[in-house]
Amino acid sequence: MTEPPQTALNIFDEFLGNHIREGRGDRRALLTDQGPSTYYDVFDASGRFARLMLEAGVEPGDRVLIALPDGLAYVAALFGTLRLGAVVVMVNPHLPTEQIEYFFQYTEPRAAFVGTECEAAFRQAAAGVADAPEVTAVGSTAFEAHLASLDPDVPIHPTQSNDPALFLFSGGTTGHPKGVVQTHGSFHNTTALYGQRTLHIGPDDVTLSVPKLYFGYATGTNLFFPFSVGATSALFSERCTADALFAAIERYRPTVLVNVPTMVNHLINHPDAATRDVSSLRIATSAGEALPVELHRRWDALFGIPLLDGLGTAEMWHIFISNRPDDVKPGTLGRVVEGFEVRACSPDGTSVETGDVGTMRVRGDSLALGYWRDDDKTAAAFQDGWFVSGDMISFDHDGYVTYAGRSDDMLKVSGKWLSPKELENCLLEHDAVREAAVVGVATEDGLVKPSAFIVPEAGTAPGEELATTLQEWARSRLEPYKYPRAVHFMDDLPRTHLGKVDRGRLARGDS
Predict the structure, then answer these.
(1) How many domains is the chain built from?
(2) How confident is the model at residue 377 (pLDDT cuts 50, 70, 90)?
(3) Is the same domain home to 285 and 252?
(4) 326 and 184 in one domain?
(5) Distance between CA atoms of 99 and 113, rounded to whole angstroms?
(6) pLDDT tier at 442, thresholds 50, 70, 90
(7) Does residue 167 register a pLDDT over 60?
(8) Domain check: are 167 and 304 in the same one?
C-alpha cells in the first residue's frame, strides 16, 4: 500500500465533534421515523457506542462491522468507531449467510453491530467462522437499557490523515467484493471538493438518499457532506420503493435527493408521479450506474429538477466527475471536479485523442491506500499516484465526459466494439421497456453476441412478438451489428450487494 504524507486528522472531529465545541450542538442533525436528533444527540450516542466497543476490547486500527438499518444507531455506531480510531466496515444487513461469512473471514472485525431483524443470519455466519466477534444485536430493550447506562465521555483518538477510516467494497459482480481501505484524508478531501464546492451543500440543506448508508455514495452525500456544514440528513430504514421515496420526500422536505438510475426509472414510471410534491428539491444526484439519456430526458420533462449524473469509485471515494447544478449536459457525466485529474488512456497509459474512448485513470488526494490484503491487485490498480480503472470514457472538446461502460463489459461484435450502455438506452426509448440490461453471451459457435434482458412495462405482454419488435427497433436506430441477438424477459434484474445490475449472473444464465 502507498504511504502518503501524514497530518493530524480525525473526521469524527470534522463532521461531528467540531459542532459541539463550536456551539452548534443544538442544530438538527438527523430526521428519522423516531423524530429529529441534534448534533449533541449524535455526539452523546457515539460516545456510548464507543464505550461499548472499549468494553469489547476494540483498539485503534481494529475493524468494526456495522450492519444496521439507517437511523440514529447506525450513525452513532459509525462515529463511535471513528472516535476510537478504529475502522468502519459497512455491510449490507440483508446479505445471505454465506456472504456474511465471507465478510467476517475477510475483514476480521473485533466487534459487530447488527439489527435485530438480521441477527439470526449474522449469528449463524459468525458460528461458522473461527475467531468471529460476538454479534451485538442493536435495538432490543435490554441493549438500549445497557447503552443508556454507559459513560459517553470517551476521548477522540488522534488519528492521522492517512490512517484507515472505512472499508468500502467493490461491486463483486465477479468473485467476492474487494475491500478498499479509505482514509480520513480522502473523506476530508472529497467532502470539500465535491460536497461543498460542486453540490454547494450548505447548513440549510436537508439530504435524503435512495441508497442506504452502507453504500459509500450515500455515506458521503447523505451523511458526511451534510454533517460537514451542520446540515440535516433524513434517514428511513424501510426498503426504498417509489412509493416510500415519494412519501419520504413529502414528509422530510429534502433539498437534495441522492438517487440512482434504477430509482429514477421507478419514479418517472410511477402512475402518480405528476401529482406528487417534490417541490422542496433543488437538485438530485445520480451515480452507481450509468444514467441513460432517455431516463434523464424523461426526468427533466416530468420534474424539472437538475439531475446531476456523475462518476466515482471506492478507490477514489465518491464522485470526481460530475454535472453541476447550473451546468447539466444530459448524456454525459459532466466535467472533472476541481482538484482531481482524469485521463482517458490507451493500454500503455498514454492519453487518447479527444473524442476517442480510453480507459480511465484518475488521481487526487482521495486515493485509497489499496485493497485489503491483496498486494497484487493493489499494484495493478494503484500506479504512481493514479488509480487505473476499468471504466471506459471519452472527453469532448468542452471537457464533458461520456461514459462508455466497463472494459470487461464492452463487447466485440463482428470485429467492432459495442458499448452495452448504447444499446440499453436505445431499448429504453421503446414504450414497452421499463428496464434493460445488455451483456455478451456466447453462442453455440463460441462467438459472443449481445443479449438483452428486459423488464417490460406493466400491462405489456412479453413474448416472441415483443422480442422481435425490440430487435427491429434497435436495428433501425443503431448500426446493424449492434442489435440484440436474443431478448429475454424478466420480472426484475438481478443485483449485487450494492444494488447494481449483476451482469455476471445474467451472462452466466444463473439469474
Answers:
(1) 2
(2) very high
(3) yes
(4) yes
(5) 16
(6) confident
(7) yes
(8) yes
CA distance 343 to 352: 8
Q: Which residues pair with 259 in a beta bridge?
A: 286
Q: Give the 3-state secondary structure of residue 20.
A: helix
Are 484 and 471 within 8 A, CB to CB? yes
**Do residues 500 and 375 share a domain?**
no
Does residue 205 lie within any of the structural domains? yes
Amino acid at residue number 296: H
pLDDT at 174: 47
CB atoms within 10 A of CB 169: 25
- Residue carrying C-alpha cell 449524535: 42
Examine residue 281 and state whether it is found in any structural domain, yes or no. yes
Is residue 5 assigned to a domain?
Answer: no
Indicate the pTM of the whole model. 0.85
Q: Are residues 259 and 376 in the same domain?
A: yes
Other CB atoms within 10 A of residue 7 CB: 11
- How would you classify the pairing of strands 401-406 and 87-90? unpaired
> Would 174 be classed as within a structural domain?
yes
- Tally Cβ neighbours within 10 Å of residue 105: 15
Give the per-residue pLDDT at 418. 81
The answer to whether residues 384 and 466 belong to one domain is no
Locate cell 469532448: which residue? 396
Which residue do the cell numbers 454479534 mark? 135
Mean pLDDT of 335-349: 96
Give me the amino acid identity at 473: W
Q: What domain range includes position 311?
A: 11-395
